[in-house]
Amino acid sequence: MKTIKVSVVTPDGPVYESDVEMVSTKAQSGELGILPGHIPMVAPLAIGVVRLKKAGGKEPDLVAVSGGFLEVRPEKVTILAQAAEKAEDIDVERALRARERAEQRMKDQKAEHTDFRRAELALQRAINRLTVTGKQ
Ligand code: ATP
């Protein structure tokens, strides 16, 4: 099967680079699957998991992405993320603490308050990281 180059890049530098058979992720418009030969496009990403299926690989590689953009060009897929972590780089204890903190803030705030929305996003990031590590 054909493959395409994928890189996941953040403001702190590259996080993931590989040749893969398929990339699937969560765009703001819904789930998105990219195969080699996909038409060029740019899509805003939601907080979600990027699944990278490698040739002959069993389980896909997983990367937690906290929003950003996906760009598909004929020879390459680039994910420009605000923050991104490979499963093995995620600090589970930190994500558990972040989840706890966010849940507490949401209890303490009214839903229309901007701090509520901020806590909601922090909660989504924490849950996403825990999902990638299989601890959710
Ligand atoms: P926290 O409150 O724990 O900082 P956060 O969701 O506010 O979580 P971000 O602002 O999304 O954190 O990320 C800041 C930096 O910390 C990024 O480089 C991100 O990759 C890294 N990071 C955040 N949480 C974790 C984690 N649980 N494990 C590893 N790296 C993390």
UniProtKB/TrEMBL annotation:
- Indicate yes or no for the key word Isomerase: no
Q: Could you list this entry's UniProt keywords, alphabetically sorted.
A: ATP synthesis, Cell membrane, CF(1), Coiled coil, Hydrogen ion transport, Ion transport, Membrane, Transport
Q: Which domain of life is it from?
A: Bacteria
Q: Matching InterPro entries, A to Z?
A: ATP_F1_dsu/esu_C_sf, ATP_synth_F1_dsu/esu, ATP_synth_F1_dsu/esu_N, ATP_synth_F1_esu_C, ATPsynth_dsu/esu_N
**Gene3D superfamilies for the chain:** ATP synthase delta/epsilon subunit, C-terminal domain (1.20.5.440), F0F1 ATP synthase delta/epsilon subunit, N-terminal (2.60.15.10)
Q: How does it sit in the membrane?
A: Peripheral membrane protein
Q: Does the keyword Cell membrane apply?
A: yes
Residues in domain ATP synthase F1 complex delta/epsilon subunit N-terminal? 4-84
Localization in the cell: Cell membrane
Which residues does UniProt call coiled coil? 92-119
Domain ATP synthase epsilon subunit C-terminal positions: 88-133
Q: Which Pfam families match?
A: ATP-synt_DE, ATP-synt_DE_N
Its family remark reads: Belongs to the ATPase epsilon chain family.
Function description: Produces ATP from ADP in the presence of a proton gradient across the membrane.
> Quaternary structure per UniProt?
F-type ATPases have 2 components, CF(1) - the catalytic core - and CF(0) - the membrane proton channel. CF(1) has five subunits: alpha(3), beta(3), gamma(1), delta(1), epsilon(1). CF(0) has three main subunits: a, b and c.
This protein is called ATP synthase epsilon chain
Native source organism of the sequence: Neobacillus driksii
